[in-house]
Design a protein that fits this description.
The protein is built from 4 helices and 8 strands. 14% of the residues lie in helices and 26% in strands. With 199 residues, it is α+β, with helices and mostly antiparallel strands.
Length: 199
Amino acid sequence: MNSKVLLKPFFERDAKIVAKQLIGRRLVSRCGGHRAAGIIVEAEAYLPVNDPACHGARGKTKSNAVMFGPAGFAYVYSIHAGHCFNIVTGNVGEPEAVLIRAVEPKLGIKTLKRRRQNDNHRLLTTGPSRLCQAFGVNREQDGIDVTVRRKIWFEDVDYDDEIPVMVSPRIGVTSGESLKLRFVWKNNPYVSGPKKWRT
């Protein structure tokens, strides 16, 4: 494995391509002064055209403004009592992003357990809200550059074999639910949802 940070060109592409290629990459957080890391096993793409579930579909607002900016920046929004962490992709002015739904925790396990107040290893970072809580991500990280080693960033990882990526409809959306824009590491136990969503 290496620790090469994913740079702007990686994210300046279609959200579908970025979402698929993020599977198996490493997400690293230094939020709150504590380092944590995990391997991305689930991500969803949100598109700028013909995708009613995309937050940019109804136009630019104060809360989603970062989506209309350059790629490689975090878009963090509140949901219920938690948050969801996305990365802006594509071109300026065309709102699209990738939601990180789950990672397999690899570093900073004690910190993750303390933040989550949970000792169940699988439940630490399985699901977008749990992931944000465990990694210390909240609205303070909205709009930060994820292509530099500061608060949160992505790193490349070398594998000997190709990662088995499965594609399915997204989870929890009430519109555009038929679009196959969810990418997962097939059979990985840290993928969110019931077992049928992991195989």
